[in-house]
């Protein structure tokens, strides 16, 4: 699975929310400032070439659906992120956020509880 650019990730977020839909529907759902229609259409075509979406011809337009689930992409991206920045150590990742005060003790306790219960899905 190829890593997406920021622009492609933003488009995929909308695809995952709205699909199956047309480029115009995706554009309407995007936050401001919205990209030009032609830019989004090109981005969607790139996503199709990369195997992330599938276009289905309907009359004189295409309706797009995701081929990859959001959770699947997140898992792959996070695995690579932790590998590249934290030497594959999720413990180091959590320690980083704790040191930066981005995660509280209560949140850590909740995570531990989820792990102990096996409720980490």
Describe the protein's architecture and organization.
The chain is mainly alpha-helical and 121 residues long. It is built from six helices and two strands; from the N terminus they run αααββααα. The chain has helices at 6-18, 23-29, 37-49, 70-86, 90-99, 105-117, and strands at residues 53-58, 61-66. The protein has a two-stranded antiparallel sheet. Helix 1 crosses helix 2 (23-29), helix 1 crosses helix 3 and helix 2 (23-29) packs across helix 3. The longest helix has 17 residues, at 70-86.
Short characterization:
The chain is mainly alpha-helical. The chain contains 6 helices and 2 strands; from the N terminus they run αααββααα.
Task: Give me the secondary-structure topology.
Layout: H1 6-18, H2 23-29, H3 37-49, E1 53-58, E2 61-66, H4 70-86, H5 90-99, H6 105-117
Antiparallel strand pairs: 1-2
Helix pairs in contact: 1-2, 1-3, 2-3
